[in-house]
Write a structure and sequence with these properties.
This protein has about 475 residues and is an alpha+beta fold. It contains 16 helices and 19 strands.
């Protein structure tokens, strides 16, 4: 029989005359002490408490050890901390720091009902999995599908977070729409090949208002990019107008959304305008021949990129119901002509040609950075479940993690060097803090590393979070 041997210390290369010795004897250590900031913010905003209203719990109350609020807190905070897979929680369920953040009264898990669960204050992957795998039409009595997500309430939650964040009613809101590829590698439900992305993927629709995420809708990829955008805007704008009836709304998107249905809908809605990219064609290029020649002449004279703007009236031969305002950016670069077109319902009195393109339309590129944050930093593309419904729920959880992290950035980091930092950078610099955790009857003592380089910033963020009103503004965050 092989002898079981557990080495208590390790000797490494000496440092001059000093021996370097290490061992696993430091006590309960966490690398995620900064998650306490998330707990403070979520509590001030009642984020998880009210998010739990978007779920319906059919479980027997007498048999519950993890409330819905605790389950969704654990899942969302786990994503914010960088733990993308449910299987990670089979180890994380022992973490007293995460248990504290989630709100467990027994962060050491000593009072679990089953002896085999002792020392595990949090839910494991199998319990968390029930949040994702419930079919939409599941019966309440089904054993493993007893936590139901209320889709309409959860959709409304994202909008309500934005409404609450404003202390004053804004004059104008700009809604950015975009579709992106979510590559899939298995035989998931809704799998289709997309020619533009040259792969099998989903085609989720995102809607942002500045940094605020309003919609994340998972869709099959065998559709037009604009499909469903009118329905999503209808519900979002209706919800916004219940609180801000006079606010002006501008819908902004690339040429994939320049469709008659969307433009006609915006034109019929009071107080709703649009500015959309427009794909170039032979007719449009012919209409700007004079401006193209002027830009080319200027470039030949200066050797620099030259722009000329043109104001057009344009109607397609078949698909548009009316003539519309089109602005052309006629640019000539070292590599040649680079024309771009946008179509808009905004008048020249609102924006002249240059301002419309350079100041308003080009600003939509920032939305793409927000989508990248979700996919790269918060695992929005972790859609590997068999059913599309489960993958939509995963996308929602990733989106909730983004909303929480964006609130940290918006509330705590305005005016600092990190006010434009990505969620991944915020995680690294604010959340990933090494600490020793000691739990006693009277307190949970988190002794953070004294060599942590951003101590002043951490204290500043905490002070700003604690200064939040609850709720800070807008309607009550009730779904």
């Amino acid at each position: 029989m092989q002898t079981e041997c557990r080495q208590q210390s390790f000797t490494f290369q000496a440092l001059g005359s000093r021996a370097v010795v290490a061992g696993f004897d430091g006590g309960t250590i966490t690398s995620d002490a900064g998650a306490l900031l998330l707990r403070e913010l979520a509590d001030r905003r009642r984020f998880f408490r009210q998010l739990a209203d978007c779920f319906r719990d059919h479980r027997n109350p007498g048999q519950i050890e993890h409330t819905v609020e605790q389950l969704i807190s654990q899942r969302v905070v786990g994503l914010a901390l960088g733990y993308e897979d449910l299987v990670d929680h089979d180890e994380l369920c022992r973490d007293p720091l995460l248990a504290t953040v989630v709100g467990k009264s027994d962060p050491l898990g000593q009072d679990r009902r089953r002896a085999s669960d002792a020392g595990k204050p949090l839910a494991g992957k199998s319990t968390l999995n029930r949040l994702e795998l419930r079919p939409k039409q599941a019966k309440a009595a089904e054993r493993y599908t007893q936590v139901e997500i209320l889709d309409d309430a959860l959709d409304a939650f994202f909008v309500l977070v934005m409404l609450q964040a404003h202390r004053q009613v804004p004059e104008v809101l700009v809604f950015d729409l975009d579709a992106t590829d979510d590559i899939i590698h298995g035989k998931q439900e809704g799998r289709h090949f997309h020619g533009y992305y040259d792969n099998y993927c989903y085609l989720p629709l995102y809607i942002f208002c500045g940094d605020f995420l309003l919609c994340a809708r998972l869709r099959e990829s065998n559709i037009d990019a604009s499909k469903g955008s009118v329905e999503e805007l209808t519900r979002i704008i209706a919800q916004v107008r219940r609180w801000w009836p006079e606010v002006r709304i501008i819908v902004r998107a690339d040429s994939g959304f320049a469709r008659e249905e969307l433009m006609a809908w915006c034109e019929a809605e009071p107080g709703v305008e649009y500015v959309l990219g427009l794909a170039k064609n032979a007719r449009l290029l012919k209409m700007i021949e004079a401006e193209a020649a002027e830009a080319a002449t200027r470039h030949a004279s200066t050797g620099k990129a030259e722009r000329v703007f043109a104001e057009l009236r344009y109607k397609t031969l078949e698909t548009w119901s009316r003539e519309r305002r089109v602005v052309a950016k006629v640019e000539h670069l070292e590599k040649g002509a680079n024309p771009r077109f946008i179509v808009t319902s905004l008048s020249e009195a609102d924006y002249d040609t240059r301002a419309l393109y350079e100041q308003l339309y080009c600003a939509r590129g920032e939305m793409e950075n927000r989508i990248k944050e979700q996919q790269l930093d918060l695992f929005a593309d972790r859609t590997s479940a068999t059913r599309m419904r489960a993958n939509q729920i995963r996308l929602w959880f990733s989106s909730l993690a983004y909303v929480l992290m964006n609130e940290v950035r918006r509330v705590g980091l305005e005016g600092t060097d990190l006010e434009q930092a990505t969620c991944g950078t915020l995680r690294l610099k604010l959340l990933k803090i090494g600490a020793r955790v000691a739990v006693s009857v009277r307190r949970v003592l988190v002794s953070m590393s004294s060599s942590y380089p951003y101590q002043e910033l951490f204290a500043q963020v905490l002070e700003r979070v604690r200064g939040l009103e609850c709720p800070p503004g807008g309607p009550p965050l009730r779904c």
